[in-house]
Design a protein that fits this description.
single chain, about 200 residues, alpha+beta, Sortase, Chain: A, 2 domains, 8-stranded mixed barrel, two-stranded antiparallel ribbon
């Protein structure tokens, strides 16, 4: 009886390891193709129904925005003079959008609305790779069709991707949070994020 139980447990462990190895090999050999296919699906979804967007405006008394952008549309640019960043900001965070600029987490607020704004970009050259050079009080400027917003950096943190409480979405205070993968020179997937926090100047 004991031998049968041990054999069953051994078989379950072996089967589990085989499954893990199988999916690991799929990720290694087909990961790039899977990412490209997901990106293509996202691109098609974004390009579908692409009509000329209306210009975004904001009511300065209520901080209410009119004519939000379609998912995937560029609605702003971000400039960080200290590290020579000047990039388009897209509403959304698909792989395709992040190849071309900065993605705006669609669950977060827009500049001027008074809540959390979450931007992300790759740690590629000419994107957010030089974040380590930023310092407290450096300026980040976001320019939209309804206004230009300057933010002053007040904190920088290295976090784990699972620490969602370090990227809180709240509506009581306008905070711009920009993040990228860490280490900055890493190629491929990493579990750490470098976050820059800034408030309106």
């Amino acid at each position: 009886m004991k031998h049968a139980i041990k054999a069953t447990i051994r078989n379950i462990i072996v089967a589990f390891l085989v499954v893990i190895a199988f999916f690991g090999l799929i990720r290694i050999f087909l990961g790039r193709q899977i990412d490209l296919n997901v990106s293509l699906v996202n691109k098609i979804a974004v390009q579908k129904n692409k009509s000329k967007p209306e210009i975004m405006t904001i009511d300065l008394d209520t901080n209410v925005i009119q004519n939000y952008p379609e998912y995937g549309a560029q609605y702003a640019t971000i400039e960080i003079p200290k590290i020579e960043v000047n990039l388009p900001v897209f509403f959304g965070t698909t792989l395709d959008l992040l190849q071309n600029g900065v993605g705006h987490d669609s669950a977060s607020f827009f500049p001027g609305e008074g809540g959390s704004i979450i931007y992300m970009a790759h740690n590629a050259e000419k994107m957010f790779r030089r974040f380590s050079e930023l310092e407290i009080d450096d300026i980040i400027t976001v320019t939209t069709s309804y206004g230009t917003y300057d933010y002053k950096i007040y904190d920088m943190q290295l976090i784990e991707e699972t620490e969602l409480d370090k990227l809180p979405i709240q509506k009581n205070e306008e905070i711009l949070m920009c993040y990228t993968c860490y280490p900055f020179n890493n190629i491929g997937y990493t579990t750490q994020r470098y976050v820059v926090y800034a408030k309106p100047r």
